[in-house]
Amino acid sequence: TPRTLDNTREQEPTSVRAEDDEVALDEAEDEFAEYFADTVRPKILLTTRPRPSRELFHFIADLQRFLPKLYFYPRRSYSIKDICTYGNNRDFTHLIVLSEKSK
């Protein structure tokens, strides 16, 4: 057997084993566990700052191709609080507000 870094490494006394019960319990109680187990799909509301540029709309189109259940709603003159209320009433799980540094 050739000597490699992995098989010649000294065992670290503080390392955690994969079958550790405490680790399994922590992973089960993780707030994102349902997402990693694919039992919950996020429903994402996407909006922009007021008066976004044309390039931002190209980026939004790319995001919609890659992220399932991503819904874009134009900002118009709505406040973030109004958008949050709207999303909450329609069972959205996440809100993304896009802005850009410079045009």
Overview of the structural elements:
Helix content is 38%, strand content 13%. The protein contains 5 helices and 3 strands; from the N terminus they run αααβαβαβ. A 3-stranded parallel β-sheet has the order 2-1-3, covered by helices on one side.
Distance between the termini: 58 Å
Give the SSE order as H and E letters: HHHEHEHE
What is the tally of helical segments? 5
Strand content of the residues, in percent? 5-15%
What is the number of E strands?
3
Estimated helix fraction:
25-40%
Describe the SSE topology.
Layout: H1 5-8, H2 21-28, H3 33-36, E1 44-48, H4 54-66, E2 70-72, H5 80-89, E3 94-98
Parallel strand pairs: 1-2, 1-3
Task: Output the keywords.
elongated, alpha/beta, three-stranded parallel sheet
